[in-house]
Specification:
This protein is an alpha+beta fold. It contains three helices and three strands, in the order H-E-H-E-E-H.
Amino acid sequence: MRTAVPSRIFPAAALAALLAACAQPREAGGSALRSDLAVTVETREYDVTPGPDQEREDAFMAILAAAGDQAARGAGMDTGFNYTLKPAGAIYPLSKVEIGCRVRGRHAHAGGKKACAEFFSVLDARLRKKGLK
């Protein structure tokens, strides 16, 4: 027994296919730079410790948090400044970390670059002062 496809479904499916085929392709990431979506402006790798060392890791994390707080205050709330930490060590995950500076897409070029430059500058200076870099 054959079942017939309702005649209403075919025109709707054809219209959906036509609209999808006519859609303009977008540049990858182009719309993110004009939105409130978070974008990574800069990333850097840091050597934390060759092996498990809780004191050194805690000191690094405290310095990272303080640098992030200072940069967030300087950048202002509208930039959406934030940072990410990703373990990158081959044997011990926290032996090396990747720090990413993120801001709202619409601030990625001007205020975002300035906020990230300040963040990494403060982070590097504090790490050198504590002998962690």
